[in-house]
Amino acid sequence: MSDNESPVSPPKKSRSAFTRALDLLSIRAHSVKDLRTKLIQRDFPVGEVDAVIERLLENGLLNDTSYAQSYVRGKLSSGRASPRKISQDLARKGIAKDEIASALEKVVEEEGIDPREALEALAAKKLNQMKGDDSLAAKRKLFAFLARRGYDLSDVQEVVGRLTKR
Fold this sequence. Notes:
The protein is mostly helical. The chain has helices spanning 17-27, 32-41, 46-58, 64-78, 83-92, 97-111, 115-129, 135-148, 153-163.
C-alpha cells in the first residue's frame, strides 16, 4: 500500500458510480438531471450512470417529485424566493413543469403559505435592515432585491410603495 492510499476507502478510480451516487444523496437530495450530470463529470461512463440512475429510481432513492416538494417547501417557507423563481430553478434542474406546478400547489396548500404575505414580510425585513439609506436609495435597493427574488413587478411596486411611504 502506498502512502497516498487509505486502508478504509478504496482509491477514487475504483469507486463505483453507484457508491458515488449514494454518497451524493447522503449529503442532500438531488434531481435525476443533477445527479446524472455530477456522475458524468466524475468521468463515469454514460451507460453505467444510466444504469445507476435506473437502480436508484427503482429503489425509491431518487425521486424528482419528492425532490421538487422538498425544494419548494424550503424556499417558500423561508421566503427566499417567489413561486416563479422556484419554478425557473426547478426547470433548470430538469423537473417537469407538471411536477413543479403540483409541488407548488401541494406545499402552498399544506403549509398555508401565502406568497403575497411572504413578499410583504420579506420586504419589511429588508427595509428594516436598510435604516441608514435615504428614501429613494432604499426604494431602489428594495425593489431590486425583490425583483431578483422573482416576485411579480406590479406586486413589488405596490408593496415597496406602501412600505416606503412616510
